[in-house]
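Input for the complex:
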Amino acid sequence: MTPFDIMQASITLALVMVGIAISIGFVRLAKGPSLADRVVALDMMTTAVIGVCGLYAVRTESEAFLDIAVALALVSFLSVVALARYAERLARRSDSDD
Amino acid sequence: METLVACLAGFLVSMAIWLMLSGNLMRFLFGLLLLSNGVNLAILAAGRLTPGAPPLLGASGALPPDTMANALPQALLLTAIVIGFGLFAFALALTIRAYRSFGHLEVDRMRSAEPAEDRR
Amino acid sequence: MNSLILSVGARFLTGLFLLFSLFVLLRGHNSPGGGFIGGLIGAAGFVLYSFAAGVEDARRALRVDPRAIGVWGMAIAVLSGLASALASLDPFTGLWLILEDLALSTVLVFDIGVYLAVFGAILTLVFALEETV
Amino acid sequence: MKLLSINVFLALAWSALWNGFSLPNLLAGFVIGYCALWFARDLIAQGDERRYFRALPQTLVLIAYFIKELVKSSIMVARDCIAPRPNLHPAIVRMPLDGQSDAEIFLLASLITLTPGTLTLDVAEDRSALLVHSIYATDEAALVADLKSGMERRIGKVFRP
Amino acid sequence: MSWVLALPILIPFMTAVLAFLLRGSRMGDLASVAGAVASLGVAVLLVGVVLDRGVVAGQVGGWQAPYGITLVADHLSAAMVLITAIIGLAVAVWSLAEIGPESSRLGYHALFQSLLGGVTGAFLTGDLFNLYVWFEVLLISSFGLLVIGGRKQAIDGAVKYVTLNLIATVLFLAGAGLLYGATGTLNMADLRGAVAASPDQGLMTLIAMMLMVAFGMKAAVFPLFFWLPASYHTPHYAVSAVFAGLLTKVGVYALMRVFTLIFVGDIGYTHEILLWVSLLTMLTGVLGAAAQSDFRKILSFHIISQIGYMVLGLALMTPLAVMGAVFYLLHHIIVKTNLFLIAGVSRRLTGSSDLYAIGGLYRSAPLLAALFIIPAFSLAGFPPLSGFWAKFVIVRASLDLGEWLVAGVALLVGLLTIFSMTKIWAEAFWKAHPKGRQPALADLPQSARWQMMVPIVALAVMTVAIGAFPSAFLDFATKGAEQLLDPAAYVAAVLGEARR
Amino acid sequence: MLDGASDGAGRMLGYAASILAALILVGMALMAPAVVDDRPVLFALDWAPSLGISLAFMVDGLSLIFGLLISGIGSLIFLYATGYMGDHPQFGRFVLFLFAFMVSMLGLVLARDLITLFLFWELTSITSYLLIGFDHDNPRARRNALQAMLVTAGGGLALLAGFILIGTAAGGYDLAQILTGPGLQDSSLYGPILVLVLLGAFTKSAQFPFHFWLPNAMAAPTPVSAYLHSATMVKAGVYLLARLHPALGGTLAWSVALTTAGAITAVLASVLAMRQSDLKQALAYTTLMALGTITMLLAGAHPYALTAAVTFLIVHSLYKASLFMVVGAVDHGTGTREVAQLGGLGRAMPLTALAAVLACASMAGLPPMIGWIGKELIYAGAETMTGAPLVAAAAVAANALMFAVAGIIALRPFFGAPITTPHHPHEAPWQMLAGPVILALGGLVVGVLAQPLLGSVIGSALTGSLLQDRAAGLHLWAGFNRAFVLSLLTFTLGIMLYLMRARFAALVDPVLRRLPSLDDGWDRVLDGLRVLAAWQTRMLQTGRLTAYLMAVFAVVALALGLTIIRGRPEIAVELPRSAFLWLTAIFTAAGAVLALNTHSRIAAIAGIGTVGIGVAVIFIYAGAPDVATTQLMVETLSAVMFAIAALRLPGITERRSPRRQMAHGVVAVTTGLCVTVIILSVTASPLDRSITSYFEENSYALAHGLNIVNVVLVDFRAFDTFGELIVVLLASFGAYAVLKRKRKAGP
Amino acid sequence: MTEILTAILALLAGGFALVAAIGILRFPDALTRMHASSKVGSLAGSLALLAAAVDIGGVSAASRALIAILFLLMTAPIGAHLLGRAAAWRSGQKPDLLIRPSDRGKPGP
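Predicted:
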């Protein structure tokens, strides 16, 4: 087994692990119970996708996927901000929707 | 690989239709997003899936040795995604306005435009 | 949304978003990116700013009505398409001015138009939504 | 700031001289430029601006400290994640602030969030304190002291003369 | 060559930019009109070129046919572009009298011009995906126009319009994408060969059905028309006039294009379906109109029934029938727009669009009455107005095929159309106003009178002219039908000798 | 502008129209010699040559007779109308419509092309509609106008179909060619043609069972009734039958249809005429009788029958127009048209009385009026026809009744003791007298000088137009033949009926009342139509979006499902081995399921976010970084916008009943399955990658870009992108408008 | 050599991602879960990016990876702060610190 093969195998393994991580994150997302829990889970999932980008960049030897990571790092933050704002306002309204 | 994506696309479409039929405008919006995603997947699959190699040329336009992913459906997809976003945005604004106008989002109870039949 | 941390963060993150968006726009022809993605990222920056400082301030920082920005983007896109008339070519034919490493083209101008249109559109949308009571 | 930009410019110039903007070239250029500026400090930098020469190494120290803390914290939290019985003591503590500038508070809050088991929740309206959530708050006073001596001190060194 | 094809699309967008930047001022309104005039000029030029050379094609960006996006104009496209420009100008002028400063500031003119641009783009493009894009452009502009008036009704109408049309566009998108996946091309001329050569004709028919449903929805055929009567009576009158004239016709155009150029492999199935659909469309539309008592609602339902005629022409697929469909398409746009404009004037004069709440127009606004008669009877198919020829050709085509039922339905629907038109006439014009109002054109401000009446008169004159001197138009439509049924010239103009 | 009648402009218009009509009359008359010499005057313009349609006219014998009647009576009617209603505020409009009608009618009878004929046919319907509804404030007038319009236009549409079939069968719409060419009787299309043409003719000429509209049409002002609904327009159907007689006549079907319809109409109408107390209504029914008689005669194929038809047509036009004008004058002079309220007017209105008596004499068929000759010819013609005894019986019955009616009209109002009328009776102005008197006298003159004045013209009509070898002569005394006997019988019966009119009425009234009224039937049909329409609309256009959506999706599911079953496209199934991809697919699908969560908005949007992420991961997997980036950005922005919007929106509840959920589920699952099958089928065969290869090869060489996707977007397919940016921009405009527009009150 | 380094980094990234996910699933409340997400998650992402930087090499790849890491580390705390604040509001913990002077004295929401 050459180092290259090892790398490929570990990338595959890592991808599967990240995939499982996302799936587990999804469980939290689905279970909630509070809005913050869901947002946390969503945030974790996006971060995991950044990881996927990195791993894919390795697998395909292509920098292109790193660009996705950069963009994603920026915008996932935006969605967290928006959802947090939402959560906070909802909490102030003591609106029991979620 | 296409098979899985095809099934996923079909599944998304089913879910989307179910949501769209629910009679609530907000859920219609959710359905719309799902439907767009489903159709996007369909287009992607229709362009055939080539794992890996993004359609980028090497320096000086060198073609990589392996087949690259099909660039054309990707361009179409990009267009479709952005258009879908525009439509979603409008629909969202309309939903807010409808809620302000009617005080609810039950589409079946929005009946100010029709029906009004001949009274004779 | 009155948060010191957010407003400090937003102050330089907005700049960072804009910078990155321009970067994405300009090198889009050769690696992933382009007007759309650039416009989306740039708009995201201002959206963030509006979250931190309020829509009023964001509009003021922008100086121009976002709708007008979008329309100018559309105008630029049209004009880049018309430019090829000067060279008696088909509409939307790219005209290239290649100086060593630097390549200027109407295609890039078109992409800038796309950038502005997307940028303006998203800000219009988000600001209008934010201002809705 | 001025000096930083000159330094960056020097690094670029150095790389250009070497005909290639590779990472090693740039780093080398930056270090050499830093040295050159230090030697010429009397010529170009007056008074407060000289802070740059101290701030830069302090920044590097801070970064190193932060990366260490990040890894440490992550491993700690990671252990708790998979431990059969996680050892959690969540609590919200109030941490008084010394620094007052926006950038300083921001940096501190961010770094606290990124370090083990702590999370900045909010800043007091009058900027007198941070509100920190910790999952290892067995001893709240010790926690605050730890934060102040660790992170806040190092940040202070970067920002204050 | 490609410029004369691209400019009709680009000018409206340039106008939109200009009108938006000058929004809220009189200059903005005038820019819109000026742009419409320019569009008309280019459209005339385009028709001239097409008459001169037959099918013309041009490549956008200079990329050879199947690779880039091609713009094509055959007789049908060119005529549609011209009609669009005419309607655009008429409604742009008419809008001056109706659209207030608020709508104008919200971007009415930009949306309106973009709508025209989208419609023109749809008519001229030779690329299936590009067609989708233009569909979206016109759709989204129509969304904006629909709600810009701000009435509660319009919001309700818009909810229905938007939701149903979104489904259609998604379906179209899916169809276009899948068709690419199945054939490897998006150029419509190229698709003709590719679809015919496909080994899996079952799949081709399947995709054809997707597109049929998508376009059918746009065209408002039975049973996909619900969005139309739900929304067309709600926005500004100028808006519903341009919708009535152009929007559904884009769907019909797309049906005609796709089901003559690309999907002709299984006519026994696809066109048979179209035939039944068209019959039901005609009947349900006209019956729907009979149940209404609102000026615009009646007209809206009639759009549906008239669409049935056009689809019928396509479904029969003989040269005469297709010619009839083409002619119908052209005539109906003018007539329908005009009727909505007249409805607008009537609303302005009488204060309502409910037929039972208005009246007295015949006595005090005889000019309007006379102008109503022309499009109304044209719609009903009375000679010597344009609608007669349309109906004549369709009926004759179906009789030639021995389709008795079809001809019978077509004639019956004509009769029921008369019923509705005379109902409007009797209630809005003949009957005295229930509140004793004497609605006279003189009540309008001078400028508004001109802005409203000149377009109406112009369109009425066109209706009469087409009816009285049909020969040139019929020949034109015949030529158009020939090109549709034998797309060799179309394919050659697009692809040259390059591929297939 | 046309309505400035108060200052006399309307009257001037009336006179001008009258003079114009007179000029046309003169023009027509000048053509007579040529026509009689069998040299028809022709005129043609190409109209729609590609359809074989021309705007062609000819003047032959039949046209000439009609043309003379139309223009001649028209001229008098204009004069009459000026006197009758010259002060009406809308008189200008009236003259305009009436003149338009006259022109249409002339066009109709002069047309040599079937489509030209149809054009004018329909124009007469329109003008008639406008004229019947002239008294438009009256709902009854509006209703009757609509009825006339729908019946005649409906017939018109049948006629159109018939004409088209004739055109197909005969190879063109040129009448000359159709008439002289090989007969249509042998064509396979003869049946349908006959039915359709007869439908057209019968509706226009108010033949049973379409007769009900004509009496209602009397809602129109009297000049209109006189002109349109007795002298001219209703003759259009008869004209058409005569015109097409050579091409369609002579078969058993033709003769049975015409005889039956004509006979029933004639008898029924004359019975009904007896019952009318309103003079105008009585006249309306006698018009029906005349039309029935003519129709009946046209069933024949013998010169006698046809001569009779043509002659009686002239007869009828002369006396009926005259009588209508008389009734108008009476109405004008006294304020009523009710027989019971009139009497002894002869002294106050001597000229009117004279016209009435003369015209009624013609109507009753008394010698030496032209009516006598007409009646004689009818009987002579009846003998030649199939089913002669029945025809003759019908003719006698009808004529006898007519005799009685003529008696009522001529005698009751003008003779006997004067009865007080609403107005003090006075003679009408000269404009109103000229018409009836001239026409009535005309009936006398052409009666006496029948053969010299009319013989050649009628002969020309028979030989030139109806293609008979000869015409019957027009003689006051044709010898003591069977016709003469029948005439005597008619008179006897007529006198008896007149004298016993009250008893007769008592006899027939119960019978008639039990007959179904077609007029009421008409209302029921219209009501039925409205109910049907309302029902259909209620079913389809419910206003419930869910129903619409369900219909649409059901159509999609059906269309795709059935086509799949029918076409059986090939599919290929090949599952991937990548665990990562499987995981992605699973959590994406799970996200979609989460979005179904009914209560939590945020759970739903998070679910959709998950789907977005999953799809993006698939894009990454498929080597589409640009798309993945865009997808993620768009998903994020959607979530952001939704988070903003959700603050302004309510929560969600599921309201569907389980049954509905079931139905929706079936549709949703079917559609989803179809989509899957289509994708599998599309991907079953390899893709033609030539376009992509072109892009790959030329992206750098020709477009100077390494990122092919971007090059496609901004260069190869820049036009798509152009449209796309407009979409996004306009979406924002629309959203801005919808959010910022202030609410507008009211509808 | 770089391959092995890459492999290690990748596996670490995967492992941390998994751990973060488990943390999020297992931790008792929103605030504690956030600790897993904002730290471990960011680390996992950063490690994967680092792996890419190491494997591909070159300035542009490295700089992109570093920029991505920088963005990740810069944005994560801000997000966590906002979210934490919201969660605190949510869970009813409203320390005096959180109440603005302007809000004081007003009745609770």
